[in-house]
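Review box. Two proteins, two foldings.
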Amino acid sequence: MPRRLAVAMATVLFVALVVCGFGFGTLLTDVDVVSAGGVGPVPGALAVVAAAGALALVILPPGRAVVAVPAAVAAAFLSYVVVLGAGVLVASSDPAVALSAVGRAAASWPGIVVAGAAALAALSVRVFTPRRG
């Protein structure tokens, strides 16, 4: 499978897993993904888009024979947390609310969902692209 196609499919897989994980997590715990009151869904959506972009940029370079799964997980997780914090800060105009939202997202199930989805997406590229000698 061509590498670009594998990366595109892995990015779609990442977004699908995050949406599914957030949905089931919210259903099972009865807690919003972005639990900062009054900010709406936009910061969370932008954070997922940024995480997907960061993941794609890390797993795309064709010069590498093997996809670095830890680097892909770190890039997706950190971009999710940073963009979520910036989005909540813009929406609420309160740094304390933004830091609280970032801390809750990073240390609870939304962070685990993002990291797990990134790991599975990076592994899928690693499995479905040919290795170069």
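Next protein.
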Amino acid sequence: MFRAFQKPRIGIVLNGGGARGPFQIGVYIALKQHGYIDKIKAMTASSVGAFSATLFLLEDEKKMIDLWKLIDNKTVKANKDFSFIKKVSSALTKKAGYYSRDKLIDLMTDKLDLEKIYQTKLPIYFSLAKRVIEDEKNTSYQAEYIKVNNLKEDDILTLLMATSAIPMVFDPVPYKGNTYVDPMMADNEPIKPLLNYDLDYVFILPLNNSHLTKTYSPSLPFDIVDFTCPQMMELKLKNMIDFDPTNQDSYISLGYFTADTLLSLLESKGLLANRLNLKKRKELNIYSLSNLHISDIRFDIMNSEDILKLAQKQKRK
């Protein structure tokens, strides 16, 4: 069969962005509606994106949303059991975190099916920042990408904590002789591991403004579909650490409508249906709402149940 008539092979990059994580669930709902889930051949993730990657394996949007609804500020940012002054002093002098994540670990242990990562044949990589040099004045970090397939559940849970260990906010995480923190210190948009796979498109699901200054090598062997939502990027940065469950439906809505709009436009142009003929491709193509000149579109906010009903209705058409 000719390459041009084969289904495209897609890689997924799930960026970090804290409490905006439900946006990626909204994108997943649209990807499923448009029939792309079985075309995903590899996934990379950083910080909260690693949590999204774990949820994607449930293949059940309702369960994904229900799990997110269990996450709030008290779960993610539980106070440590010592005084305010001591917490601040510890964070500044020892690079320890201000908050405890014991409650979050308990929630993940109880509710997440980490066995699915062990069992899946879909390659999944977590991006982390490894501490490589530290003295009294300086600390440097190096990007590291760990393939989590076939790892034990305890290892996966440790890496989920490591990739989301925001410096000064949460404690660094030791793992196999190294110390890791959130990849905001190294690579929050881990495309590199996907270079090892035969892909036509890489779908990037960004959550914060750091993505807007990202540049890509023209020699990338795949095209990029960028699910940036301009409407979300206008929000204040502080909401990335505000895990208020009442905000989650708005992120899911923005993710769904961004992805549904972008995918529909690309499909109308005859893209995404077949494998790319890379020999004929003259340059790297990046597709986004901004590049298609519709970045000023404003999406309605709906509750998640209505989003699921809408996606199911659109899928039947």
